[in-house]
Design a protein that fits this description.
The chain is of the alpha/beta class and 227 residues long. It contains nine helices and seven strands, in the order ααβαβαββαβααβααβ. α1 packs across α9 and α2 packs across α3. The two termini are 20 Å apart.
């Protein structure tokens, strides 16, 4: 994951997601941070504009370091008061935990990225991943967002283990999001549609996940692993 000065074409989309999917973003952090057993030295790998870093600090009291290769996004993260590395080899320490949300699918050499995360973790450190699931959902929207893939559960587990990790759990998230993504097709939803989903549909999806749908299907996968 190397530094780049190229502007990310989805900057506006990141702002829309931050402003319109507040429940969704809060739940991502809740799901990932709950598995990190109170670890304090945390890295947000591929932090975007710092949306989850801010939510992470709000929920846990821990201010994560960030890693973001895009210069425009990195500048926003710095303005928001977070330390932000421009590339993996610029990180000045190892971490007790690393989390990464909707990032790995943007990296062509995803196994190499997982190996890099492994190298940044201290022994016994925890990795928490949130990635899009099911290649059958791969659409023009994925392509326009710069996705190389969506993940099958077995594929994600296999690659994480190849990088050296011991996988603790891997389960689906956002079961209703599966149908919503399938129905949406090629275009990024507008702010009104995102707010509708966040307020009315995602809360139901979360309940269904909790009563067992996370074992069956979902728009995303959550993986927890240890070094």
């Amino acid at each position: 994951m190397q530094e780049t000065d190229s502007a990310y074409s989805g900057f506006a989309e990141l702002r829309a997601i931050e402003e319109s999917l507040r429940r969704y973003n809060a739940d991502i952090v809740r799901n990932l941070s709950g598995c990190l057993e109170g670890r304090k030295r945390v890295l947000d790998f591929g932090a975007g504009i710092g949306t989850l870093a801010m939510e992470w600090e709000k929920q846990t009291g821990v201010k994560p370091d960030c890693l973001e290769v895009d210069a425009r996004q990195r500048q926003m993260i710095l303005e928001r008061g977070f330390r932000c590395y421009a590339a993996i080899d610029s990180a000045s320490k190892t971490f007790e935990a690393i989390y990464s949300s909707n990032v790995l699918e943007h990296i062509e050499d995803d196994l190499g990225a997982l190996v890099s995360m492994y190298s940044l973790l201290e022994e016994g450190g925890v990795l928490a991943l949130y990635v899009p699931a099911f290649m059958c959902l791969f659409s023009e929207l994925d392509r326009s967002a710069g996705h190389y893939r969506r993940y099958g559960r077995a594929e994600l587990i296999h690659k994480t283990m190849r990088a050296g990790f011991r996988v603790v759990k891997c389960e689906y998230s956002d079961c209703l999001g599966f149908a919503a993504w399938l129905a949406n097709g090629a275009t990024f939803p507008g702010a009104a549609a995102l707010r509708l989903y966040d307020r009315w549909i995602y809360p139901v999806s979360r309940v269904l996940d909790g009563v067992g749908m996370r074992r069956v299907a979902g728009k995303n996968l959550i993986l927890i692993a240890k070094k």
